[in-house]
Write a structure and sequence with these properties.
74% of the residues lie in helices and 7% in strands. The protein is mainly alpha-helical. It has one domain: Arc Repressor Mutant, subunit A, CATH 1.10.10.10. The model has no long low-confidence stretch (mean pLDDT 92).
Length: 92
Amino acid sequence: MELLRTIEECRSLSAAAKKLNMSYRAAWGRLKASEDRLGMQLVDRSQGKSMHLTPVAKELLDQFDLLEKEASTLMENSYQRLSLTINHLKKH
């Protein structure tokens, strides 16, 4: 996800790789492996060296952000319930 976000920000795989302190080859390998696993194109390679996320990749990022937010909320709620339970048990 971080690589996709950085590609979108930098508009190039080379610049994204540099920003993430990765080799171009490693970034290309990750991108290609992700596309192969998902069976879909994640970036549009337009004229020149410019690169943009496909609509599907943007939706994946949006859904990942939502999932991350929901997981964080779930963990916080679970932590609060567990803390209340522990405090209750300590009193008895």
